[in-house]
Specification:
The complex is a heterodimer of chains A (about 325) and B (about 260). Helix content of chain A is about 80%, strand content about 0%. Chain A is mainly alpha-helical and about 325 residues long. Chain B has two domains: about 160 residues, 3-Layer(aba) Sandwich (Rossmann fold); about 35 residues, no CATH class. Helix content of chain B is about 35%, strand content about 25%. Chain B is built from nine helices and twelve strands. Chain B has a six-stranded mixed β-sheet with strand order 6-7-8-3-9-10, sandwiched between helices. In chain B, strands 2-1-4-5 form a four-stranded antiparallel β-sheet, with helices on one face. In chain B, strands 11-12 form a two-stranded antiparallel sheet. In chain B, a hairpin with a 4-residue loop joins strand 11 and strand 12. The chains are: A mainly alpha (about 325), B alpha/beta (about 260).
Chain lengths: ~325, ~260
């Protein structure tokens, strides 16, 4: 645990990883570019073809991947605090399912893509409120009941999603399916997601020490001066918003919110003042790399990035689970 | 001690799930006192502690700290005056002993601010007091039951409020450690004019270290006062529904449960 004494070295390392992942994403693909060709973009001597390839295709896609990875990782961290359980994430709780269903409805009715984010947010919030109101029995609630409720609701959302897919017109189905598996190939507005990311990270950091203490339980947190009802309210709102931001941008991408915080905790521990920014950076960087691989390994065939994160995430998670026993 | 600086309950009636915990409780916990709360399992001792610190609402009556209603305090302000050590904790994440101790400083640190040297020093002193300083970089998952209790106490010592609410603080500790920690608390409360309110099961330890006792009976009845008046074999026999005999050898008083025909 050497990094624990030098957390800022770790954060700087992650920052460098983000830069490397961007360079990897911008230079890979059909017609690979060298570093010098990339640099020629900066001084304006690049060919117009390269310029449009990089600036109009690869850069927006890498930026979208970074935002989605960072948003999902932050949402995962917050939900793990809410449940006081490291195995929680937007998917386990059915929050992604609710957001995906609401976003699919918006796609079905063909509304503007800004409304996609709003719709996904409402779906996520509705879903998380349902999980907690059903799991909250009189007086107290147990973690196992909460997780079970989340799993049941997730399968319910799954059924509703299938229903939408069945009634959707044929020309929309391919896009919807791809989006459901987690897909970054569509050109979606980046600004709302980055605003959500910035706002979410700042708000989460402002309550980060309270998050550390909430992990010890409501009674302990209350006795140390935390208004736990209000804090839980903020976490509900924030994790829904972050999930919605990611879903609207990139569809359903699994395991990022689960695996990234877990990995970061293994290295630097549970202090949320470091865990939150580190998870955002690592989640963003890894999703850029995963998405670049998704569009290059079987080129010209493109894989949805969600398939790739699941293929990496499932064995990694099972390994971590086994090791922690 | 004047009533202006005290934790006071007035006419406090408390029940949970139809079960009466205490009826019309009138007590004043004053600085410098060390209280022991006793009663059978499930009588509501823990609930009473959580009510005293304002984390549960009473059915009737009032709790005031320094003449101000406990519910009228902002929680972060209250945390500078009152602290609670729970009976047990559930924690599922990686964390070192030092980090766990430092959370006691939370009420004293502003948002966006980090623990400074002084906070770390307070935490180190607390860890030294409970004998865990050598383990301060260890992961809390590797601690034994007794070491975990010491850690919980170190966190409360780092918070160092005026009122220490302690829920079975010497559970899981060996006899020597029990004596060490209870005498340490006793000394601290009388020297610093702080007040301890402790749930405890062992009448001998209570007799030795507490100067005041509150007995909670099963039907909401209660009895409070100076230790020597309250901790008698008659009261204890009634409290635990089991004959208890008192032995005196001049310097020490010892309570022993006798054979109970009902139990055999």
């Amino acid at each position: 645990m050497k990094f624990k004494q030098h957390p800022f070295i770790f954060l700087s390392g992650l920052f460098i990883l983000v830069v490397i992942s961007f360079i990897f994403a911008l230079s890979s693909g059909s017609g690979s570019l060298s570093i010098t060709e990339l640099l020629s973009l900066v001084d304006g001597t690049a060919s117009p073809l390269h310029q449009s390839l990089i600036l109009e295709l690869r850069l927006p896609r890498a930026l979208a991947a970074f935002a989605a990875g960072a948003l999902l990782s932050l949402a995962g961290v917050l939900m793990q605090v809410l449940l006081r359980n490291p195995l929680a994430d937007p998917y386990v709780l059915g929050v992604s399912g609710g957001a995906a269903f609401a976003a699919l409805l918006a796609m079905l009715f063909g509304v503007h893509s800004l409304w996609l984010t709003g719709s996904a947010f409402l779906g996520a919030l509705l879903s998380i409120l349902m999980v907690f109101s059903f799991a909250h029995s009189k007086g107290s609630w147990s973690i196992s009941r909460l997780l079970l409720t989340g799993i049941i609701l997730a399968s319910g959302w799954g059924a509703l999603i299938s229903f939408v897919l069945v009634i959707a017109p044929a020309e929309k189905i391919h896009g919807m399916l791809f989006w459901l598996m987690g897909d970054l190939s569509y050109d979606r507005p980046l600004l709302p997601s980055y605003l959500i990311l910035l706002f979410g990270l700042l708000l989460a950091l402002s309550i980060s020490r309270q998050l550390n203490i909430l992990l010890w339980g409501d009674i302990q947190a209350g006795s140390l001066g935390i208004d736990t009802r209000r804090l839980r309210g903020v976490i509900f709102f924030l994790s829904s918003l972050l999930t919605a931001g990611a879903i609207a941008l990139a569809g359903s991408i699994g395991f990022v919110g689960l695996v990234i915080p877990h990995l970061v905790r293994l290295i630097i521990g549970t202090d949320h003042r470091l865990l939150l920014p580190a998870s955002a950076l690592l989640g963003g960087a890894l999703l850029i790399i995963a998405d670049t691989l998704a569009r290059t390994v079987l080129a010209p065939q493109q894989l949805p990035v969600g398939v790739l994160t699941a293929l990496i995430g499932v064995p990694l998670f099972l390994y971590l689970l086994r090791r922690s026993q | 001690m004047s009533l202006t600086t005290a934790l006071t309950t007035k006419n406090l009636t408390l029940s949970i799930a139809q079960k009466l915990i205490c009826e019309k409780l009138d007590i004043s916990f004053n600085p410098g006192e060390f209280w022991g709360i006793m009663g059978v399992n499930g009588v509501g001792k823990t609930t009473l502690l959580q009510t005293l610190i304002g984390l549960r609402n009473a059915n009737h009556g009032a709790i005031t700290l320094n003449q101000k209603g406990i519910q009228d305090y902002k929680r972060i302000i209250l945390a500078k005056h009152m602290g609670l050590m729970l009976q047990e904790y559930e924690y599922n994440f990686p964390c070192t002993v030092m980090e766990a101790t430092l959370i006691g400083r939370h009420p004293f640190i502003h948002n966006w601010q980090w623990e400074d040297k002084q906070d770390r020093q307070l935490a180190q002193e607390a860890l030294k007091t409970v004998g865990l300083l050598d383990l301060s970089e260890r992961s809390i998952n590797t601690l034994s039951g007794g070491e975990k209790r010491r850690l919980n106490l170190a966190t409360l010592l780092t918070q160092n409020p005026d009122y220490y609410l302690l829920d079975e603080p010497v559970n899981h500790l060996d006899i020597k450690a029990q004596l060490e920690i209870l005498s340490l608390l006793q000394q601290q409360f009388s020297e610093n004019k702080q007040c301890g309110i402790m749930v405890i099961h062992d009448p001998n330890m209570a007799y030795r270290f507490c100067d005041h006792i509150l007995l909670l009976f099963n039907d909401g009845q209660w009895l409070s006062g100076a230790t020597a008046e309250i901790l008698t074999s008659d009261n204890l026999s009634q409290l635990y529904d089991c004959p208890i005999h008192q032995l005196n050898d001049g310097d020490h008083t010892l309570f022993i449960p006798l054979e109970n025909e009902k139990l055999i």
